[in-house]
Amino acid sequence: MNAQAAKTNAPLVCVSCHERLQGPLVCSHCGKLQGSQNTDYFALFGLPRKLWIDIAGLEQKFLQMSWKLHPDNFVNASEEERELSLKRSSELNDAYRALKDRVARVEYLLAIEGERKEGEKKQQAPPELLEEVFEFNESLDELREAKAAGLELDGMKERLHVAEKNFGAKLAEVDAEMQETGKDWDKAVDASADEATRKNIMGRLNEHLNRRSYIRNLVLSVAKELAEV
Is the dihedral of CA 96, 101, 102, 103 positive or negative? Predict the structure, then answer.
């Protein structure tokens, strides 16, 4: 595990009584609300940095922790504590949104591991899609010219529907590949794999995310054009 991860997952100590915390929100010894201690989203919910998550269990923990931060519990507290409860509640909501979504979860994991890499590759068409993307762009040009000329668009719409289906299938393929690589990551975590192995898997996850982003943009572009026909 890298230095950042080790620091983030270090045992938390109450800022008031200095006893070891059982959870990152409220001290079970003195009842004091805790300020942020650089706890990552996984650690906030008491989870290892793995990509398979029991979503029902995550939701249950979220509801339990949300109640601890509910304003009703701080009616008689100081203004500082009330503000802190709102801040921690916001952090908890952000953590829940990130972890409950499978794609956002991968992005967050790579971000805290310092391995999320975006850039030019994200904007490049995956090699296996070059021909389809070229044909799609040609179809868009023809569609716009036909619309401007007031011509029949049924044939153009059919080509867009085909493109939509093909891109949708490619998106599903990328999601399946990312899920399998996610399993490799979880196995590496369980086995305390070396840094080289972990970086290799994270590199593959990055590639999946970048390809997914490009293909999803294509899917959205097709849907937008079809909605305007």
Answer: negative
Q: How many helices (H) does the chain have, and how many strands (E)?
A: 9, 0
Give the dihedral sign, CA 170/156/223/108. positive
Domain parsing of the chain, residue ranges = 3-112, 121-228
Interior angle at CA 215, CA 205 and CA 202, nearest 5: 5
* 1.10.287.110, 3.90.320.10, 1.10.3720.10, 3.30.1490.20: CATH of 3-112: 1.10.287.110
Q: State residue 145 phi and psi, 5-degree precision.
A: -65, -40
Q: How far is CA 203 from CA 99, 121, 200, in A?
A: 20, 13, 5
What element of type H or E holds 152? none
Residues 6+ apart with CB under 8 A from 22: 28
pTM: 0.79
Tell me the per-residue pLDDT of 93-145, one tens digit each, with 9 for 90 and over: 999 999 999 999 999 999 999 888 765 444 566 777 788 788 778 877 777 77
Full 3-state SS string of 35-73: CCCCCCHHHHCCCCCCCCCCHHHHHHHHHHHHHHCCHHH
Q: Are 17 and 32 in contact (CB under 8 A)?
A: yes
